[in-house]
């Protein structure tokens, strides 16, 4: 007999493989996405129940996971928007909403305050590792919330990756945004170094090998330059628009808590410029192409 069921809202590039990891760990999963074609890909798999509405998704469940683009969409799915009702009213009292989206930390705390009168609590559990680690169930999962709440969902989260306890509610979302800022800084620095080196006459493959053997090594040099950038594929599975959004959240958090972060502002500005130049469908590794084509 399967464990659960667990509700899961948002069956995108990440959500689909995350649901499959839950199935592989013998959970029953009730899924919903505003795009029916996304849930259709899972409909025939044992242990899957496809909900036609958010109300149907939440009915009688103790745990609902959200994997959505941002805080506003998470809130709309939870409480409803316009004529569309959300899932929260239908959940069991004492239930948990587990937000694995990249949401704004202070919005996460506001969401918890609004859910408390319904007898529901929130755990924030954003992830890092991309589609590849979602497929293998080896995501880094950063959790925020009460210890007892995180413990209640530990078996669900462990099916999808390794849990890293970040702290109080909102801490996971804060850490995710800051992680993506550090990652983005490495991406931009690597792209600029490659552009300068090539214009000087250096071989970018040689440069990458030396960087990876030296102190310049970072996630981009190790995992992206050869696989997605120098070959012109630009298809790592993580959109530039999402990276820009996450770094923007880090910048907004710094501002809200009164911390001066000039480098963060520069990185966000460069990502915003690249997004404007490349378009919202661009993969984040396409920043390399943008930097290479940029004029002095």
Give a description of the structure:
By secondary structure, the chain is an alpha/beta fold. The protein has two domains: 3-167, NAD(P)-binding Rossmann-like Domain (Rossmann fold, 3-Layer(aba) Sandwich), CATH 3.40.50; 174-293, N-(1-d-carboxylethyl)-l-norvaline Dehydrogenase, domain 2 (Orthogonal Bundle). It is 50% helix and 16% strand. It has helices at residues 15-24, 36-40, 54-58, 71-79, 105-115, 130-136, 147-152, 154-158, 171-200, 204-212, 219-223, 225-229, 240-256, 262-278, 287-293; strands at residues 3-9, 27-32, 48-50, 63-66, 80-81, 84-85, 96-99, 121-124, 127-128, 139-144, 161-167. It has a six-stranded parallel β-sheet with strand order 3-2-1-4-7-8, sandwiched between helices. Strands 9-10-11 form a three-stranded mixed β-sheet. Strands 5-6 form a two-stranded antiparallel ribbon. Strand 1, helix 1 and strand 2 (27-32) form a beta-alpha-beta unit. The model has no long low-confidence stretch (mean pLDDT 96).
């Amino acid at each position: 007999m399967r464990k659960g069921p667990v509700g899961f809202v948002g069956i995108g590039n990440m959500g689909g493989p995350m649901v499959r990891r839950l199935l592989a760990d013998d959970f029953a999963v009730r899924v919903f996405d505003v795009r029916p074609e996304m849930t259709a890909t899972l409909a025939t798999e044992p242990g899957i129940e496809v909900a036609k509405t958010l109300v149907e998704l939440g009915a009688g469940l103790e745990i609902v996971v959200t994997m959505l683009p941002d805080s506003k969409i998470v809130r709309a799915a939870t409480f409803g928007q316009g004529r569309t009702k959300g899932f929260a009213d239908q959940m069991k009292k004492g239930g948990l909403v587990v937000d694995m989206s990249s949401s704004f930390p202070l919005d996460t705390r506001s969401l918890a305050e609004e859910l408390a009168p319904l007898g529901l609590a929130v755990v924030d559990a954003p992830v890092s590792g991309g589609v590849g680690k979602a497929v293998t169930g080896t995501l880094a999962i950063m959790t925020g919330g009460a210890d007892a709440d995180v413990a209640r969902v530990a078996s669900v989260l462990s099916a999808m990756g390794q849990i890293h306890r970040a702290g109080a509610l909102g801490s996971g979302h804060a850490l995710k945004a800051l992680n993506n800022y550090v990652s983005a800084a490495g991406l931009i620095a690597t792209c600029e170094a490659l552009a300068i080196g090539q214009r000087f006459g250096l071989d970018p493959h040689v440069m990458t090998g030396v960087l990876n053997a030296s102190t310049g090594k970072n996630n981009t040099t190790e995992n992206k330059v050869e696989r997605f950038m120098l070959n012109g594929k630009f298809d790592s599975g993580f959109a530039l628009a999402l990276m820009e959004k996450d770094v923007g959240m880090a910048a907004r958090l710094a501002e809200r808590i009164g911390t001066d972060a000039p480098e963060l502002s520069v990185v966000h500005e460069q990502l915003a410029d690249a997004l404007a130049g490349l378009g919202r469908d661009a993969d984040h590794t396409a920043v390399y192409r943008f930097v290479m084509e940029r004029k002095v």
